[in-house]
C-alpha cells in the first residue's frame, strides 16, 4: 500500500514553531542580562578603584610633599633669622640643610602634580619659581659662603621677606588648587558611586525580569514539549494505523479501522462513512460505531447526502445546521443528534469522491478546532489510499480468478481439441500404414513419396498438438514439476550429445564450457533438459554453416541475474544473424516467428513460449541478449537459493 503522509504541520504547530523561534529574543535578553550582571559591577568597581587610587596615589602624596616644602621654607627663614640675630652658624646650617631637603621634596612633588592636571602643575611651577627667586636673592648676598652678615643684607631684609611671603603665597595657591582638584575628583567619585547604586538597582530589576523571562521561557518549552509529544504520539498512531490498513484485505475491515481510529484520534460522539454506490446516484451509510449515528444500510440520493454537499463546496464540511444536509439524511440526523456539530472529509480515489468520513460531536463539547480538521483530512487521505488499495486488490483478485478461469477453459478446450484431432490423425496414420503394407497393391515410387509427405504432415500436426498441450499446462499451472538435486553440467552434457549430430550435419561447431566443480541445484532435470534442448535446437537451426554454438554454465550472484541471491546461468550462444531489439520480447509470444524463419524454417512458434513458461514454473526465467549481425545469447536462469526455488515465477 502506498504510504500516506503523517499529518502535516497544523496552524497551531506552526504557531508553536514560530513561538519557539521567537524565544530566541528573550533568550538573548536573558544572556545579555546575565552578562551585564557579571560584567557591569566589575567595570564599575574598576572605575571606582581607579578614582580612589588617584586620591591615594596622587593627591595625598602631593599634599604631603607640598606640606614638607612649606615646612622647609619656614625652617629656612627661621634659620636665616636666627643667624642674623645670633650669628651662630648652626642656624645657617639649618638653612642649607632645609634648602636641600626642599629640592628633594620638589623632585618628589612634580610627578604627582603632572598627573593632577595642567592647573595644579602650573601652580606647582609658580611655587618652584617663587622659591628659586627667594633663594637667588639670598645667594646674591653670599651669606652662606662668607659666613658673615653683610650690611647690605640687612638693608635687603624687607625685600627678602617679600620674596619669602610670595613663595608662601604660591604654596598656599598650590594647596588650594590641590584641594579644588580633590573636591572635583571626590564629587565625580560620588557621582560614580550614585551611578553604581542606580545601576545596581537597574541590574536587580533586570535580574528579576530575566528570571521572569526564564520562567516564561521554561513554560513555553514545556508547552512546546507537550505539543511535540502529542505530535509524536499522533505520528506513532498514524504509522500504526497505516500498518494496520496495509494489512487489511477487505472493505469491511478497512472501514472499521478508519472509523474507530477517527473516534480515537478526534473526540466525537459517533462516526460513520458514506459510500457512493455504483452508478454514482446514491450513497449508503457503512460502519457507524458510537451514538447518534445513522443506521448502517441507510441510503440517500447523492445530492441529498453529506458527500453531495461537500462536492458542491469543494471542501471539508463543518456545520451545526442539519438543514444544510439533504432532505433524506437531515431529518434523521436532526432527530438523532439535533445539538451536534458535523465534521466531514472526502474519501477520494483518482480525483473522484468515493464517499466521506463523517464525525459527530455534541455542541456542548465545543466546535471542531483547525487542528482536528486537519487531522480529519489526514485521516481521510490515509483512508482513501487504504480503500483504493483494497479496491485494487479486490479488482486484481477478481481479474486473477477470471484469468484462471480463462486459462482453465483454454486448457480444457485444447485438451478436447487435441483429443478430437488425434483420433482422425490416428485413423489417417493407420490408413497410410495399410497402403504402405501393399494391401491395395504395390505402390509406385511417386505414390510412396506422396505417402511419406502425408506421414510428415501427420507428425508435424502431432507435434503442434503436443506443444499446445504443454503450453496450456504451463499457463494453467498444471504441468507436473518433480524437483530433486541435479548436476547441471551432467544434464547439459546429455543435451549437447543429443544435438551434436545435428550440429555436425549443419556444418557447425558445438561446444560446452562447464566449471569444475559444476553447481548442483534443486530442480527438475527433465524440464531443464527440455528447455536447453529447445534453445540448442533453435541455435543450430538459425546459425549459418561454419558458425559456432556454445553452451556455458556459470554461477552468478546479483549482476544481470533476474533477482537477488545466487543463480545458475545456462547460456546458449550462437553466431547467427541476431534478433532486432524490438523483437527480443515478442519471440517469446505464442506463434510469433521472426522474418525468414516464419516461411523458410519449420516450426510452430511455440517453443520459446513453452520454454519460458516452464523456466518460470521452475522459479527461474529465460532472457535474451542479441545484436543484429553478431548472434544471440539465450540464458536459462535457475535459482540456487532454496528460498527462491520455493517461489515459482508467474508464467507469461
Beta-strand level of the residues, as a percent range? 5-15%
Broad structural category: alpha+beta
Stretches where pLDDT is under 50 for at least 5 consecutive residues are 1-18, 596-600
Query: Which strands sit side by side, in order, in the main sheet?
Result: 3-2-1-6-5-4
Helix tally equals 16
Mean pLDDT: 77
Radius of gyration: 58 Å
What's the helix-strand series? HHHHHHHEEEHEHEEHHEHEEHEEHHEEH
Describe the biggest sheet?
6 strands, antiparallel
Helix percentage: 55-70%
> How many domains?
3
Taking the alpha carbons of the first and last residues, their distance comes to: 25 Å
Q: What's the number of extended β-strand segments?
A: 13
Q: Shape, please?
A: elongated
Task: Give an account of the 3D structure.
The protein is α+β, with helices and mostly antiparallel strands and 652 residues long. The protein has three domains: 24-217; 260-389, GAF domain (Beta-Lactamase), CATH 3.30.450; 480-645, Histidine kinase-like ATPase, C-terminal domain (Heat Shock Protein 90). Helices cover 63% and strands 13% of the residues. It has 16 helices and 13 strands. It has helices at residues 11-22, 24-86, 89-114, 118-140, 143-146, 151-247, 251-265, 306-313, 329-336, 370-437, 445-475, 488-505, 525-542, 597-600, 607-617, 642-645, and strands at 270-276, 282-286, 299-301, 317-319, 340-349, 352-362, 484-487, 509-513, 520-523, 548-557, 566-574, 621-627, 631-639. Strands 3-2-1-6-5-4 form a six-stranded antiparallel beta sheet, with helices on both faces. It is elongated, with a radius of gyration of 58 Å. Mean pLDDT is 77; it is low at 1-18 and 596-600.
Amino acid at each position: 500500500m502506498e504510504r500516506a503522509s503523517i499529518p502535516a504541520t497544523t496552524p497551531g504547530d506552526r504557531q508553536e514553531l514560530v513561538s519557539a523561534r521567537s524565544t530566541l529574543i528573550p533568550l538573548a535578553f536573558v544572556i545579555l542580562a546575565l552578562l551585564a550582571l557579571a560584567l557591569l559591577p566589575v567595570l564599575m568597581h574598576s572605575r571606582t578603584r581607579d578614582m580612589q587610587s588617584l586620591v591615594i596615589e596622587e593627591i595625598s602624596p602631593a599634599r604631603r610633599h607640598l606640606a614638607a616644602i612649606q615646612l622647609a621654607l619656614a625652617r629656612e627663614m627661621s634659620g636665616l633669622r636666627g643667624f642674623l640675630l645670633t650669628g651662630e652658624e648652626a642656624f645657617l646650617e639649618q638653612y642649607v640643610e632645609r634648602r636641600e631637603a626642599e629640592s628633594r621634596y620638589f623632585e618628589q612633588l612634580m610627578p604627582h602634580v603632572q598627573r593632577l592636571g595642567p592647573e595644579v602643575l602650573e601652580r606647582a611651577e609658580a611655587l618652584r619659581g617663587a622659591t628659586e627667586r627667594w633663594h637667588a636673592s639670598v645667594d646674591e648676598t653670599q651669606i652662606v659662603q662668607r659666613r658673615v652678615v653683610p650690611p647690605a643684607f640687612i638693608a635687603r631684609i624687607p625685600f627678602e621677606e617679600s620674596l619669602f611671603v610670595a613663595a608662601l603665597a604660591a604654596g598656599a595657591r598650590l594647596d588650594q588648587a590641590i584641594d579644588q582638584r580633590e573636591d572635583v575628583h571626590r564629587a565625580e567619585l560620588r557621582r560614580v558611586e550614585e551611578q553604581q547604586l542606580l545601576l545596581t538597582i537597574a541590574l536587580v530589576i533586570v535580574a528579576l525580569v530575566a528570571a521572569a523571562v526564564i520562567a516564561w521561557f521554561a513554560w513555553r518549552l514545556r508547552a512546546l514539549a507537550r505539543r511535540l509529544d502529542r505530535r509524536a504520539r499522533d505520528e506513532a498512531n498514524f504509522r500504526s494505523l497505516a500498518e494496520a490498513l496495509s494489512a487489511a484485505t477487505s472493505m469491511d475491515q478497512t472501514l472499521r479501522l478508519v472509523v474507530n481510529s477517527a473516534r480515537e484520534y478526534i473526540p466525537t460522539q459517533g462516526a460513520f462513512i458514506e459510500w457512493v454506490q455504483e452508478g454514482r446516484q446514491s450513497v449508503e451509510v457503512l460502519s457507524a460505531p458510537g451514538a447518534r449515528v445513522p443506521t448502517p444500510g441507510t441510503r440517500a440520493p447523492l445530492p441529498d447526502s453529506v458527500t453531495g454537499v461537500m462536492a458542491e463546496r469543494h471542501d471539508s464540511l463543518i456545520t451545526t445546521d442539519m438543514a444544510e444536509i439533504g432532505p433524506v439524511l437531515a431529518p434523521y440526523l436532526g432527530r438523532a443528534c439535533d445539538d451536534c456539530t458535523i465534521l466531514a472529509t472526502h474519501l477520494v480515489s483518482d480525483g473522484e469522491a468515493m464517499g466521506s468520513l463523517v464525525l459527530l460531536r455534541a455542541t456542548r463539547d465545543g466546535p471542531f478546532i483547525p487542528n482536528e480538521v486537519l487531522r480529519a483530512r489526514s485521516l481521510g487521505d490515509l483512508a482513501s489510499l487504504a480503500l483504493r488499495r483494497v479496491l485494487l486488490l479486490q479488482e486484481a483478485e477478481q481479474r486473477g480468478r477470471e484469468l484462471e478461469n480463462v486459462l482453465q477453459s483454454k486448457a480444457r478446450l485444447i485438451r478436447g481439441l487435441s483429443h478430437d484431432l488425434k483420433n482422425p490423425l490416428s485413423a489417417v496414420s493407420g490408413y497410410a500404414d495399410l497402403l504402405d503394407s501393399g494391401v491395395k497393391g504395390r505402390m509406385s515410387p511417386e505414390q510412396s513419396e506422396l505417402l511419406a509427405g502425408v506421414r510428415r504432415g501427420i507428425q508435424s500436426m502431432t507435434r503442434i498438438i503436443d506443444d499446445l498441450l504443454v503450453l496450456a499446462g504451463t499457463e494453467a499451472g498444471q504441468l507436473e514439476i518433480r524437483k530433486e538435486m541435479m548436476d547441471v553440467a551432467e544434464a547439459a552434457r546429455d543435451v549437447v550429445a543429443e544435438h551434436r549430430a545435428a550440429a555436425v550435419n549443419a556444418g557447425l561447431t558445438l561446444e560446452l564450457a562447464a566449471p569444475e566443480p559444476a553447481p548442483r541445484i534443486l530442480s527438475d532435470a527433465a524440464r531443464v533438459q527440455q528447455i536447453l534442448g529447445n534453445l540448442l535446437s533453435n541455435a543450430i537451426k538459425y546459425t549459418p554453416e561454419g558458425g559456432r554454438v556454445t553452451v556455458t554454465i556459470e554461477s552468478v550472484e546479483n549482476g544481470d541475474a533476474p533477482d537477488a541471491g545466487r543463480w545458475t546461468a545456462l547460456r546458449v550462444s550462437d553466431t547467427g544473424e541476431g534478433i532486432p531489439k524490438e523483437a527480443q520480447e515478442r519471440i517469446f509470444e505464442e506463434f510469433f516467428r521472426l522474418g525468414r524463419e516464419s516461411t523458410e524454417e519449420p516450426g510452430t512458434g511455440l517453443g520459446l513460449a513453452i520454454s519460458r513458461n516452464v523456466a518460470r514454473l521452475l522459479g527461474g526465467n529465460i532472457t535474451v541478449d542479441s545484436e543484429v549481425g553478431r548472434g544471440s545469447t539465450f540464458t536459462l536462469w535457475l535459482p540456487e537459493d532454496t528460498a527462491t526455488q520455493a517461489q515459482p515465477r508467474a508464467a507469461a
